[in-house]
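Exercise 7 asks you to align residues with tokens for two separate proteins.
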Amino acid sequence: MLWPMLAIALGFVGIAVLGVCAVRVFVEAERLGRQVSESTRRISRAAEDLERAATSAAGAVGASAAADRI
């Protein structure tokens, strides 16, 4: 009778350990998702800033070239 009870107890402990690991993986996956979302937002904002800077630089170069022709 000892061995079946020990097997059941070890099975329960094993399932409990797997449950704890699953919860930790879920929490870390959520955290990673938030970090990826934040990084995507920051990259998008940097791309917009770069596009604005490139547009103003191109305008400045165009104005300079037009002034040189006169």
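Second protein for Exercise 7:
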Amino acid sequence: MRGTLCYVAPEYSACGYLMEKADIYSLGVLILVVVSGRRPLHVLSSPMNLEKANLISWCRHLAYAGNILELVDEKLKDDYNKDEVTLCINLALACLQKMPELRPDIGDIVKVLKGEMEVPALPFEFSPSPPKFFSKSRRKHKNNED
């Protein structure tokens, strides 16, 4: 296996072997590189921008905050189609899921890009509003009301 570190799927670095959808992970990284106009790992001179150094982590952070369009290359200013960029970033996030079996198949990716299929829902791990789970204290409170 050869390649740039940031393009390699996490299961390879963890286990030392490639799974079927490792290339899908790399495609997700490539999509983010194209949208952002920068490298996946970029050493910045300003310590204030350290969270932006790792493109994938930064994108995940922006998705969780519900602000993914901040990722778009600043050189574009506002001269781009926001719907298409949002689709591309969400597709990249679907490709970047840590568990390979949750990543989309290449056929589905092609259908999404052709407009023949909706982009998969934003993965739970990146969602700005993940489903709420009841805490133990809330369950106790509800049981006391009964």
